[in-house]
Specification:
This protein is an alpha/beta fold. Helix content is about 30%, strand content about 20%. A seven-stranded parallel sheet has the order 19-20-18-17-21-22-23, sandwiched between helices. A four-stranded antiparallel sheet has the order 1-2-5-8, with no helix packed on it. A four-stranded parallel sheet has the order 13-12-14-15, with helices on both faces. The longest helix has 20 residues. It starts with 8 loop residues before the first strand and ends in a 16-residue tail after the last helix.
């Protein structure tokens, strides 16, 4: 009679006082060198040594929380006995910065992209209908739906679709300040994203976010690729829809002239996202995506990490990689802004992780952040950007955004991201337009259960596939999707409702 195999666990760093359960560990089972005193679900943590109350709990070689009671070897460690508290961190600005190797152009990987008149390269070819205010959102949707139902796009196979990008603000807000500037950057960022060939911006007419002001501030001249209209000036809903459709029909043959051509991977700007994270995220998909980001940087491209509340507690690992003290200090300044912002709202930075994150094994924001930061790889941090700010540096950069996935991704796309990778352990169903989203599952169970949503299984890292090999697989998938292969979320039709600009400030 064969002996039952011990449940598998993984120790992530020699200094850790916990292991992570790869398999569920039942009471009395031997795992990680100890005997389990409680049941430990897969993805959760098991103490390997005694941890006195008040002592740090260590995972990834970093503090993820502090014991709230005495913890014995074999105990399940989670919210019942481990809690977040602040502690000093050494930012060591630039200590780990280096001159990243970038391959010469002749050795860089290539993909098939759309070269735009301004020199940027798109991976998709959309026509966008932007609403300046929620009051024009329905009209923008009506236009897009009518065009898509009409069958006219069958005549233009190189156009990926006509998409309405609508939102919930644009009025009842201050006409200056942070909230207004964020919306302005986001609108213009989508209008100029290289995955968008032509834009119709539709307003009501009397809103705070005035189209004429935006045109003036950005020096916009209307033409074949960018036009505007308002419902009030045009004469109401029906006339605006009819005239808007006429304008879009005139844009279609112009947008359809774009043709894919071979371009270097240095033209890729990769948005790094995670959502529905679990205890495996920081072990499998996130570090594998980080390896892919490192490869992209080596090939001259750009990788954008974001979600500031979800690198909270791990920011010292990024400041060490900052190319200058100024870059590192800008990141810390955004961290301090978030501490103040959440406190004023009566919250705490540890309000994140979510219930789903905790069910998946993540106990504190410190633990979640250490895993999330792994998406950023190991290269030098070249810049820190405000939300939806145009990214103008090559290499690894950071953008300040909320942790909420659609809001964060909207900022990255506005910043210029033309492809996106999204890791998930609990099973996010996110998709994006105009930027294709590649979904990476942290574990084989969710990959198989949500096979129609997931593009790559990173769960096989737990079976022995190396992080480096998985990173190369992800990088190759990025090239394929950027060349026109549809991601799973594109096949499902996601992206029409995921334009979610960050709303900051009072709604009045």
């Amino acid at each position: 009679m064969s002996r039952a195999l011990s449940p598998r666990t993984v120790r992530l760093h020699a200094e850790d006082n916990v292991v992570v359960a790869v398999d569920t560990v039942d009471v009395g089972a031997s795992a990680g060198g100890v005997v389990a005193r409680q049941r430990v679900p897969r993805g959760h943590k098991l103490a390997t040594v005694a941890i006195p109350a008040g002592a740090p709990v260590v995972k990834f070689g970093q503090i993820i929380g502090f014991a709230t009671v005495d913890i014995a070897p074999g105990d399940h460690i989670h919210s019942h006995n481990c809690a977040f508290q602040t502690f000093d961190r050494d930012y060591a600005y630039g200590a780990d910065a280096r001159n990243d190797m970038v391959l010469p152009p002749e050795l860089q990987a290539t993909f098939e992209g759309y070269r735009r008149p301004d020199g940027k390269v798109g991976t998709r070819n959309y026509v966008a209908i932007l609403s300046s205010v929620n009051c024009s959102a329905s009209v923008a949707r009506f236009m897009a739906e009518a065009i898509n139902r009409s069958g006219v796009l069958a005549d233009y196979p190189t156009i990926d679709g006509v998409v309405p990008f609508v939102h919930g603000t644009g009025c009842g807000m201050a006409a200056s300040g942070e909230g207004f500037e964020v919306l302005k950057r986001t609108q213009w960022g989508y209008a100029t994203n290289p995955n968008v060939a032509a834009v119709l911006l539709v307003g009501l007419g009397c809103e705070v976010f005035q189209i004429a002001r935006m045109k003036d501030e950005y020096g916009i001249v209307e033409g074949d690729h960018f036009q505007t209209m308002t419902i009030q000036e045009t004469g109401g809903t029906k006339k605006t829809i009819e005239q808007g459709m006429e304008r879009i029909r005139a844009m279609l043959p112009i947008a359809a002239r774009a043709r894919r051509e071979t371009v270097p991977a240095s033209e890729l700007m990769l948005a790094l996202q995670c959502g529905g994270s679990d205890g495996y995220s920081g072990i499998t998909a996130n570090p594998a995506l980080g390896a892919a980001a490192d490869i992209l940087v080596e090939h001259g491209g750009t990788a954008i990490l974001s979600e500031t509340p979800e690198i909270y507690g791990a920011e010292h690992l990024l400041t060490r990689r900052a190319e200058s003290r100024a870059v590192g200090e800008k990141l810390v300044e955004r961290i301090r802004w978030w501490e103040d912002y959440t406190a004023k709202a009566g919250g705490s930075m540890d309000n994140n992780p979510s219930p789903g994150n905790k069910a998946g094994g993540l106990t504190t924001i410190l633990e979640k952040s250490l895993g999330a930061a792994a998406k950023g790889g190991t290269t030098t941090l070249r810049g820190v950007y405000e939300y939806a700010e145009r990214v103008d540096r090559k290499g690894f950069v950071f953008m300040d955004t909320p942790g909420y996935d659609p809001v964060a991704a909207t900022g990255q796309v506005a910043g210029g991201a033309n492809v996106l990778c999204f890791t998930t352990g609990r099973g996010s169903a996110y998709g994006c337009k105009p930027t294709p989203s590649i979904k990476l599952a942290t574990n084989s169970d969710i990959f198989n259960r949500m096979i129609d949503d997931m593009d790559i299984n990173c769960g096989d890292i737990l079976e022995g596939v190396s992080i480096a090999d998985k990173g190369r697989e992800i990088f190759n998938k990025i090239l394929q999707v950027s060349s026109g292969e549809k991601s799973k979320s594109e096949e499902l039709g996601y992206g029409d409702n995921e334009f979610v600009p960050w709303q900051i400030g009072a709604t009045m």
